[in-house]
Amino acid sequence: MLGSPSKTARRLALWALAAQISASQTLPEKLIEAGHWKRARSIVESRFQKQPNDPLTNFLLSQIRNAFRDRESPMKFAERAVALDGGTARYHRRLPR
User: Global pTM?
Assistant: First the structure.
């Protein structure tokens, strides 16, 4: 038994939200989430060459460079992502407080 109807409805709503979030992720985001950092790096660096002013690309490069223990460029890319799109909260989370 799944539980009361209200619990079941909440569970279904959470599953729908999770599916929606997953569907809205880009391929590099899915690769990063799955731990495929090298594959994500290849895609994101290629995208950066074509679109250096894309905030998501800068944000992802910040994450990727950090994962590969780069000590200098992650902050530069995080700051650039925020400068390009200051309204996205997750970009701000890459910056020190």
Answer: 0.74
Q: With contact defined as beta carbons under 8 Å apart, do 32 and 64 qualify?
A: yes
Q: Pick from 47, 77, 44: which is nearest to 62 by CA? A: 77
Encode 46-82: b = buried (16+ Cβ within 10 Å), e = exposed: ebbeeeeebbbbbbbbbbbbbeeeeeeebbebbebbb
Q: What are phi and psi of 25, to 5 degrees?
A: -75, 145
Measured between alpha carbons, how far is 63 from 4 in angstroms, rounded to an integer? 41
Query: Directed axis angle between helix 73-84 and helix 55-67, to 10°?
Result: 160
Residues in the chain: 97
What gap in Å lies between CA 76 and CA 39, rounded to an integer? 22
Residue 13 pLDDT > 90, yes or no?
no
